[in-house]
Amino acid sequence: MTGLVPTERGVGETVAVDAIPEFAVVVFAAVTHLADPWFLFALLAVGYWFAGDGIAGSPRRAGATAIAVVTCAYAVVAVGKAWFAVPRPPGAMSPADVPTWLPGLLAGWFEAQVLSDGFGFPSGHATGGAAAYGALALLYDRFWTQRSRLLGAGVVAAAVAASRVVIEVHYLVDVVVGVAMGAGVVAGGLRLAGDPRFRCKRDTAPHDPTAALHPTPAFLAAAALSVVAAGLAVTAGHTGEVVEAGIGIATGVGGAVGWRFVDGDEPPVPVRVVIPALALTGGLWVGAYALSDSLLVTLVATTVAVVVVIALPAVADRGRDATRPGRH
Q1: For residue range 136-177, what is the model confidence (pLDDT) as tens digits?
Q2: Are 39 and 33 contacting, i.e. CB atoms less than 8 angstroms apart?
Q3: How do residues 61-108 score in pLDDT, each as one tens digit?
Q4: Where are its TM segments located (predicted)?
Q5: What is the mean pLDDT of the chain?
Q6: Residues 201-237: tens digit of each pLDDT
Q7: CA separation for the pair 28, 10 (Å, rounded)
Q8: Chain centroid to CA 102: how far?
Q9: 54, 113, 165, 273: which sits with the fewest CB atoms below 10 Å from its CB?
């Protein structure tokens, strides 16, 4: 379907970006981290493990569903990038225009931020950011007001989208479509998970919509979309997109398998359990990317890591029961 999205799709944003002071560009380069995949999944995992009843009516269901929604968002991005296969703006290519006043360490960080390979449409950061912060605003529904949460989510999503244009790794259309896709994925993902607020027919307003959530369908939808992305990428010979799609398949399958161990009403996970789990999952994810030349290793490592993340509340709860006095 190449040609549906033109290679030259700018609308004059490059001229505007060139007028932005260097200091502001550096700030936006930092803002873009708010939707880095590693940051979003770490944020979502922390919420899933530690959130209490004061954050959501059913915090484990809410947290797992948020992870499933964002997994769907990245799967949709993988399909879009493999399908349209259009390049990023010239500013994303080497050499990077690094401010001379940045010290060496920050200069290396800045260069890594503003140089990006892969395809440019839609923006993964804009899509993932809109999906993640939108899902969090809707699912963690017992703090602030819904209006305040949605406003906060919108501000962060907009800032991330703007940052991708300012550091010249995306055109404006890439991020606008990405934000719209992220919002659509939130609605679709929550409906798949059984959120009564997104059903076609609602007889009464739910007292606790998170109690009805079941993230497995959303995880499986993400895996299915990633299979489509992998097929498109293989057909077109886009090796990098095949790896990304494979990670999406593994994340979706791992999430669905991990949730089978969870009842949904487990208490927060103790820190003493989280620390070794972080070491294990972190090592697996680092290995998955470091050994991305071996797709099988990447798939297995990612699947195991996601299973551990999702199943951890149940493992911790059963371990707690086993050590209570009177248990033999």
Answers
A1: 999 999 989 999 999 999 999 999 999 999 999 999 999 999
A2: yes
A3: 999 999 999 999 999 999 999 999 999 999 899 888 999 999 999 999
A4: 23-50, 62-84, 119-138, 150-167, 173-194, 215-236, 242-262, 269-289, 295-316
A5: 92
A6: 655 556 789 999 999 999 999 999 999 999 999 999 9
A7: 19
A8: 30
A9: 54
What is the rounded distance in angstroms from the CA atom of residue 14 to the CA atom of residue 90?
A: 10
Question: Residue 248 and residue 223: Cα distance in Å, rounded?
Answer: 6
Q: Which two tokens stand for residue 204?
A: 């009464």
Mean pLDDT across the stretch 51-65?
97
pTM, rounded to two decimals: 0.94
What does the block give as tokens for 315? 């493992």
Separation CA 204–CA 30 (nearest Å)? 44
Backbone angles phi, psi at 293, to 5 degrees: -65, -25
Neighbouring C-beta atoms of residue 6, cutoff 10 Å: 13
Rounded CA-CA distance 264/279 in Å is 24
194: left (phi over 0), alpha (psi -120 to 50) or beta: left
DSSP state of 87: B
How many whole angstroms separate alpha carbon 267 and alpha carbon 283?
Answer: 26
Give the tokens for residue 70: 């964002």
Distance CA 185, CA 75 (A): 10
Q: What is the dihedral of CA 147, 39, 35, 30, to 10 degrees?
A: 110
In angstroms, the CA 101 to CA 293 distance is 37
Q: Which residues are CB-neighbours of 280 under 8 A, at least 6 positions away?
A: 305, 308
